[in-house]
Amino acid sequence: MWSDATIRVDAVLYDLDRNANKMLYSVVNKNGIIGYIITDNGQTKVIEFALGESPYQNILHKDVDIKSINEKVNKKINLIYDAGTYFYSSDDNRTITKVDVLNNDSLSAVNSTLNDGILVSPRSIWQNINVIPGVPAETNNPPTIGCGPVSAMNLVKYWDSHGYPNLVSDSDTKQILYNKLYSALSCFPFLGDIATLPDSYKEGVRNYTTSHLVTNLIVLRYSSISNSDISILKTEVNNNRPGTILYDDSYRYGLHYVTFVGYAQDLVGDDFYIIHDLWSSTNVYRSWSNDVSDMNFWSIFTFRFN
User: Fold this and answer.
1) What are the tens digits of pLDDT across the range 201-225?
2) What is the C-alpha separation between 22 and 39, in angstroms, rounded?
């Protein structure tokens, strides 16, 4: 739990139809902002939270007091949260601008002693939390920009230190390991980015491990994800087996591979899952039901050794 911290109301958040439907909070201690929370408008359900400042913080300006923040937001700027993506409107709401989280330090990691961001929300306490320890959080920053090979890198490095030491050589830098996985996963340039097809990802990870003398890896791919499939992810986490999620999320992540590392639940029974999103080294908590209802999941990959 984040100890010695208070929760501060920062702003009302709107959807793209200009309806007020979310609330933004900052978690603050004597050192300043250490986390943020987004809830529904009734403050009964946590939609998202993470360590660090919220993606909106550069717009809110951290050097003004809360009264000034509220006046600024209410009179000049509307903050918009829609399908997990951050926007703001200005110029009397004639222009809507997407907040670029890649160029924002909002999600940067802070004091690692904060116990992975587990906290008390405005009206609920987190329970049934399980995070796999020791999963790497490599990012797909240039020149290793392919999310497919970088998400696979997180898994390969994890297994290398958990019983399969042949998977990563002592001479493998991040770039060298990335290049090996890029080839194994049959990645290719596409529209200025790097593409990895789902079946190529599944077979490529297995081919990589086989080529490194680990022949007993089983890779399963799940599509058409439903609410009940949270049980698949929970089973993997409970057995200390990180996996991969491939998003088809046009608002925030786009076509993007991430590493799942855990799950959590609040007292009213809402499920959250925890990822390394490759954009930061912070654990990111996302609502399972929201992502299912928004059809953000393309595939989920699980990995086990027989």
Assistant:
1) 999 999 999 999 999 999 999 999 9
2) 6
